[in-house]
Amino acid sequence: MSKRIDVKDLDIYYGDFHAVKGVSMTIEPRSVTAFIGPSGCGKSTFLRTLNRMHEVIPGARVEGEVLIDGQNLYGKGVDPVDVRRQVGMVFQRPNPFPTMSIKENVLAGVRLNARRISSSAADELTERALRGANLWNEVKDRLDKPGSGLSGGQQQRLCIARAIAIQPEVILMDEPCSALDPISTLAIEDLINDLKSDYTVVIVTHNMQQAARVSDKTGFFNLKATGQPGQLVEFDTTQTIFNNPSQKATEDYISGRFG
Amino acid sequence: MSIQTQTPQTPQGDVQRSRLEDVEGVVLSRVRPTTGRPALLLALGALVLAVVLRLGLDMHVALALVLSFVGYLGAVYAVYRHLGGPRVAVDQVLRALVYFAFVCAIVPLASLLWTVVAQGAGRAFDPSFLNQTMNGVTGLHDQDYAEGVGPFVGGAYHAIVGTLIITGLATLISVPIGLFTAIYLVEYGGRNPLSRWIRFFVDVMTGIPSIVAGLFAFALFVQLFGPRDAKMGIAGAIALSVLMIPTVVRNSEEMLRIVPNELREASLALGVPQWRTIAKVVLPTAASGLASGITLAIARVIGETAPLLVAIGYARGLSLNAFEGPMNTLAVYAYYMFTKPLSPAVREPSLERAWAAALLLVLIVVALNLLARLIAKMFAPKTGR
């Protein structure tokens, strides 16, 4: 259920603006990879290229390759819609659909794609996804209530349940805890640890402790100056990045001496 | 050469921070607590003054009111300046001006509603008025009625039905065009040149005088059917939709634009194609706003008279076929009854009909507005735990 991602010499542009330059990395299956770095350095932009969500922004384009188990996401004839069915995404702010109930939110990926699903299968899928997102016990009695009535942390777990209900190979998380309190953050971090056994998880975070706690590998992004493209400075095991980084910039950032 | 910098002189010795009011040249305005009671008393006084001016000096009502209002402003400023300080006084004066502006806005509206109800209510709910058309009704009937020999005949049944048919057709034409244009502008067009041009022309269309829309529709149908048979209901519907489409586009565009982008991204990230994202996520989320926007656009055109006068002509009897022959609507009916009474000698019955039709039209618009609110409430995203 989880796949390996190879990124080769990826350059990302917004119109004429060169946003991210020359990223190459390999993301192992069944692992958690974290990206850290200052604001505006292109972490989120890079993350969004892994399921072609950056294309939603007009003028965005990439050069280079992203291979998921050897298949190039940017190859000719690859439909972005198919890519996104394989690579799920959780966003910074919880965004359940306000017109739908909790259950409908979980099943949104299936229903919106108009795949046929029997009601028993729908029930089973809802329960499995909500259990997978550690939310089942909290909401099992009110599946028909609107998803917007949940707390922020619950909404974010609902969004994770929605993402895993379509059974993707990879789950991308763009600062999933930045709008949450410490307790909800802990719940999400526990969940990320559980998800690791089934999925490849890639997470962008501003919280370095979080990166240290949840990830197996860490990538540090930086940019030389404003207006310059962001770059992947260092990519290694989390242990190495936090204890013995090879680059001065990484060490400065980790220890808080940065800018 | 050395660079000399002049350091600003710091006050010697006085390191302790002084309070702002102790600094020379600073005057703080102090506010003393006040109540609203003096303002109320002064307002009563101003009212009394107005009555005195009107009755005692035989002034015009409006002049008396304005004079006493100006007097009130001066008095309230003086009193509150004494009681609470200049800031409170200015607050009270501006408060009075805001209320005055509110009254100025509401008075014509209330007066209009009152006049329509007072003049029209007597006839508008008469079953015979609601059930009859003007077919075969002549000035002689009106004269008989005025002399007390005959019953009141002739009604607006055909005009009510015509209003509903023509506005309904206009809605059927405008809503798909307007809504799809808005979807293109928001979801696909972005800021490309085509959508900039569309926006520009929609804005221009918003300002088209309604008579021009009517002439356009009439000219179009003359081309198609010849001058003799050009007047028909559908021509009116097309004239109205020319007026309605820009409103629908603009309203819907605003409504679609406020749907959070995060919802679109959430849907796209689930591997949902864009058209399904629009149909299943964006439109339902915006549904309440779209529905009320469309209803308001309908309310805006339902009372149009000029374009319909040109495009649909004037029918005395009931015509259910919008594709053949003249029809009638409430607005046109009221216009004709007012300008061309059946019996020039006895205008009263015709004026009564005009007012009754006006009242019915107002009621339909009010009902549409209530309906818009109801729909908005029905579609509104559910909350609750």
Verbal overview:
Chain A has 259 residues and is α/β, with parallel strands linked by helices. Chain A has a domain at 5-94 and 170-255: Rossmann fold (3-Layer(aba) Sandwich). Helix content of chain A is 35%, strand content 25%. Chain A has helices spanning 43-49, 80-86, 102-106, 108-111, 119-132, 136-139, 152-165, 182-195, 208-214, 238-243, 248-255; strands at residues 5-14, 17-27, 32-36, 60-68, 71-72, 87-90, 170-174, 200-204, 217-223, 230-237. Chain B contains 14 helices and no strands. The chains are: A alpha/beta (259), B mainly alpha (385). The interface between A and B is medium-sized, with 35 and 27 residues. Chain A: GO terms for molecular function: ATP binding. Chain A: Keywords: ATP-binding, Nucleotide-binding, Translocase, Transport.
Question: Could you write a compact summary of the structure shown?
Answer:
The complex is a heterodimer of chains A (259) and B (385). Chain A has helices at residues 43-49, 80-86, 102-106, 108-111, 119-132, 136-139, 152-165, 182-195, 208-214, 238-243, 248-255; strands at residues 5-14, 17-27, 32-36, 60-68, 71-72, 87-90, 170-174, 200-204, 217-223, 230-237. Chain A is of the alpha/beta class and 259 residues long.
List the helices and strands and how they pair.
The complex is a heterodimer of chains A (259) and B (385).
Chain A: E1 5-14, E2 17-27, E3 32-36, H1 43-49, E4 60-68, E5 71-72, H2 80-86, E6 87-90, H3 102-106, H4 108-111, H5 119-132, H6 136-139, H7 152-165, E7 170-174, H8 182-195, E8 200-204, H9 208-214, E9 217-223, E10 230-237, H10 238-243, H11 248-255
Parallel strand pairs in A: 2-10, 3-8, 3-9, 6-7, 7-8
Antiparallel strand pairs in A: 1-2, 1-4, 4-5, 9-10
Helix pairs in contact in A: 5-7, 7-8
Chain B: H1 37-56, H2 61-83, H3 86-124, H4 127-131, H5 139-147, H6 157-189, H7 193-206, H8 210-225, H9 233-257, H10 261-269, H11 274-302, H12 306-312, H13 330-339, H14 348-379
Helix pairs in contact in B: 1-2, 2-3, 3-14, 6-9, 6-11, 6-13, 7-9, 8-9, 8-12, 9-11, 9-12, 10-11, 11-14, 13-14
